[in-house]
Amino acid sequence: MILTYRYQLRTTAKQRSELQMILDQQRWLYNEALGWRQFAYEVYGASVTYMDQCRWITYRRSRDERLSSFPVNIQRATLKRLDVAFSGFFSRVRRGENPGYPRFRGSDRFDSFGFVEFVGIRLTGKQLRFKGVSGGLKINLHRPLPDYEKILSCSLKRKANGKWEVALVLRISTPEKKLVETMIGIDVGLTSLATLSTGEKVQNVRPTTQSERELRVAQRALSRCRRGSNRRAKAKVVVSRIHETIRNTRETYLHQVSADLVRRFDLIAVEDLNIKGLAQSRLAKSIHDAAWGRFRSMLTYKAEGAGGQLVAVDARYTSQDCSGCGERVPKPLSERVHSCPSCGLVLDRDHNAALNILHRAVVRPALPNVAQCGVRATDLTCLRGANWDTT
């Protein structure tokens, strides 16, 4: 399993100046390489590849001390970043989507650089060392690194508050799958972030909505500033910090909720939603604020790391079908209570959907049956219905 661990760096003023110098050089390299590709195609109709530009940077390093003063791996990573941008552009063209041609980056649109491989850099204890930065960059290890097989890559990012963070991409071994003793179905929503098949509801903190007024005031102040002025640069920092606070609040909460669920349950069942399609509806802002996709991603890798299982089931009719007898009871989205005319079951709409999600996960042919999973009989009380066989 491949995971990314992010840590804040404790840098000195000199180190921040050196990191900014490296960042400026990588931005220049990115724009230079992009201009070369664009010129070659427009004038000669030729395509420039990643390997062509790697050979070019090797040649330039032998004649330019400013380029050779930094590890070549950083420069190759920047060229690879451009190559990935072009690969995405061509793939979107083939699919008939809005292509989004790679563009030249200004100083406010380029805030990270990295190493294409973990070569030319050393991690010793709590310090990161590489050519071009004096001393070692101290890492704030707020949580220890796990036992890993290999560090695949590393990137450094300048944050809105002027501080720097490092992201280490690790390959770690995963434990064997454990027998399922506890399981849960999860129905995500907007009123509540999630409703569990036990009836428990997880609060939706809505970080964007909570900071909406502060963000609106800051963005209006930014729009009144003259372009290129120092006042506008300061206003942009204020807006960026608000966005960063929103992102950190959301990430922290989702980490806490997902970690709690993985600790409590061995099998977690979720809906296989088309989040991209749903995010194009009138509820797009609320869906993005809830971050269903990020929540599922966290559940996936945390469950795998703990030896648990995450199962995605078909989302169709989970809210319409009765969890007691299986009868389909059509209802509009505004109707928040499920009331079955056949068996008389009355419960919250989302609770009913969560029970259906769990049932679909348990009876899937691809999974071992309940008895083989080692599920206790007491764990199946919420699944027992008139027409359901869970043995």
- Reading the helices and strands in chain order gives EHHHHEEEEEEEEEHHHEHHHEEEHH
Radius of gyration over alpha carbons?
26 Å
Oligomer: single chain
User: Kindly, what is the distance between the CA atoms of the first and last residues, rounded to a whole number of angstroms?
Assistant: 33 Å
Tally of individual helices: 12
Characteristic terms for this protein:
12 helices; 18% strand; 5-stranded mixed sheet; 7-stranded antiparallel sheet; 14 strands; 391 residues; Nucleotidyltransferase, domain 5; alpha+beta
Describe the overall structure.
The structure is a single chain. This protein has 391 residues and is α+β, with helices and mostly antiparallel strands. The protein is built from twelve helices and 14 strands. It folds into two domains: 2-171, no CATH class; 183-207 and 243-383, Nucleotidyltransferase, domain 5 (2-Layer Sandwich). The strands form three sheets. The protein has a seven-stranded antiparallel sheet with strand order 2-6-7-1-5-4-3. A five-stranded mixed sheet has the order 10-9-8-11-12. Strands 13-14 form a two-stranded antiparallel ribbon. β8 (183-188) and β9 form a beta hairpin. α1 (13-44) packs across α4 (72-95). It is globular, with a radius of gyration of 26 Å. Mean pLDDT is 88; it is low at 365-391.
